[in-house]
Automatic annotation (TrEMBL):
The chain crosses the membrane at residues 12-37, 49-72, 84-102, 108-128, 149-171, 183-202, 237-260, 272-293, 302-321, 327-348, 360-382, 394-413. Its main location: membrane. It comes from the Bacteria. It comes from Bradyrhizobium centrolobii. This is MFS transporter. The lineage of its organism: Bacteria, Pseudomonadati, Pseudomonadota, Alphaproteobacteria, Hyphomicrobiales. It is a multi-pass membrane protein. It is found in: Cell membrane. Residues 11-420 form the Major facilitator superfamily (MFS) profile domain. One of its GO terms (molecular function) is transmembrane transporter activity. Pfam families: MFS_1, Sugar_tr. Keywords: Cell membrane, Membrane, Transmembrane, Transmembrane helix, Transport. InterPro entries: MFS, MFS_dom, MFS_sugar_transport-like, MFS_trans_sf.
Amino acid sequence: MATKNKLPKRAALVSFVGSMLEYYDFFIYGTAAALIFPKVFFANVDPSTATLLALLSFGIGYIARPVGAIILGHFGDRIGRKTVLLFTLVLMGGSTLAIGLLPDAKAIGNAAPIILTLLRLLQGLSAAGEQSGANSLTLEHSANSNRAFFTSWTLSGTQAGAILATLVFIPVSSLPEDQLLGWGWRIPFLLSALVLLVAYLVRRTMPETPVFTEIKDKAKVARFPVVTLLRDYWPDVLRVIVCALIATVSTMTAVFALGYATSKFGVARPTMLWAGVLGNVTALITQPLWALLADRIGRKPVFIGGALGCAVLVFPYFIAVTSGNTLAIFAAAMILSGIIYAAPNAIWPSFYAEMFEARVRYSGTAIGTQLGFLAAGFTPLVSASLVGEGPNGWIPVAAFVACCCVIAAAAAATARETHTVDIADLGKRRA
């Protein structure tokens, strides 16, 4: 019994570490796309176009996510959560290492950005299955009373991955320009070899979930989970897609605002990078607390409140970022990313997964989130297209993100509340 009681904590730890290390790989690409790649892989065009192309390559990773969600979701619901999660680690780690070894445009010309984009697509395929699998694994190992708390550690791992990625980039970004563009930027990508090894060793000993094992033993595994999902759960898939628009806040702050503040307002790169660290460190503290609250009062109030809070606070965030005041930038990052956005970010792993029964849970959360995350993936590109001239050019960007947050909150309001539903009854169709 003692071992069984430890499984939820172990599952949460495995999901945290695996998510942290996999999303380290994913976030270093976003940082490099904002600061490095326009000059390294897209140097043959004017600077503005190079920036757009680099941000487009970041967004392209999100195009691969729905495809990866269908493929990895199918196998996650057919052969188990654990096996697929090990595969996603190898795929992400290998593609990231390859980016670090890729010759630049000066060496191989137009082949460089083409290969870079293909490797980014592989990153997207991997990321599509990571969070959904980790969420399913942790949720199905947890007790009814603490599902949100333990499952939230998957997203805390994502925050930790962002912190790790940024901490690696801070000293690298301080290198002289020629060294940074020549070899310095490669260091974070090459370190993915260590990332892959640690994550694999941590994850490989985790047992399969009892919920999935029972389904498999009783031969109740869906032959084609996606078909079952779209036939019986299409309203929930659509709901998750719209709720996932909340992730536009994350890529706006982590990618677009980083490049915007440094290039247009002269904010030092380390200032924006440290602001991101502060926001994510704060989220590591607040996300488990928001999850504990959701286990007591429900998923919907926490998610909706956080989404509407983001819609309001994105405007003062940009005021602070464009002011150039370091303290204001730090405070804005801590409040928006670390406190308010942390609420829906902590809750969605349980909120979305609890909409589906175990037979289609991996597929449902993977496909729903990854289609919704398309908007997040292209938020930096859309933002760069919307931004105007002058000190208030950010207003259209803030309005776009705020609208996404309000729409996500509205979709969440239509969902069933599931925090008191037994895990065996989750996703059952109501008469």
